[in-house]
Amino acid sequence: MTGEGANPASVTIYGVNGPDDIKTYNGMTTPKSNDYSTLNEGDYRAFFQDMATSLYGEAGAKVHNPPIAPALTYRIRSIDGSPLKGMKNGKEVPMNGVYFHRTDWNGNAKNASKGCPTIDGRQWRSVEKQLGKSSNIFFRISR
């Protein structure tokens, strides 16, 4: 989570059970190359949506060879409905198709994301327990 190219972040999740359901996790947004952008700090909304084409979602994990343990993934939106923004090569750019998901189960993030906010895979089951398949999630990315 802090290796070469890492962009570590604290991810605070405001769970569905009110003020007693706020937790902060070690997260990051690390592009795999300069071709991808990194989601800006800020407050966001999210909802459960399977990232089906990725091994980090439920459907993608089942067809992976060999199959791996599936995980829940969450689609990200801005609070006010405006386009998401990120940084790419020092410039702010629009982003779309952004999900909140885990790194590899062992915490390795070498190939985990193309700029999506991620949580250490070793902590991901706690995130899933907190959020389930909710459609009204709020979270904050801080660096």
Labels describing this entry:
single chain, 143 residues, mainly beta, 7-stranded mixed barrel, 3-stranded antiparallel sheet, 2 helices
Give the low-confidence spans. none
Strand content: 25-35%
Helix content: under 10%
Largest sheet, described in full?
Answer: 7 strands, mixed, barrel
Number of domains: 1
Coarse morphology: globular
Order of helices and strands: EEEEHEEEEEHE
The rounded Rg comes to: 14 Å
Strand order of the largest sheet: 1-2-9-8-5-4-10
| pLDDT averaged over residues | 85
Put simply, the count of helices is 2
Which structural class should the secondary elements be placed in? mainly beta
Alpha-carbon distance between the two ends: 13 Å
DSSP strand tally: 10
What does this structure look like?
It is a single chain. The longest helix is centred in the C-terminal third of the chain and has 8 residues. The mean pLDDT is 85. This protein has 2 helices and 10 strands. The two termini are 13 Å apart. Helix content is 10%, strand content 35%. It is mainly beta and 143 residues long. It has a 7-stranded mixed barrel. It has one domain.
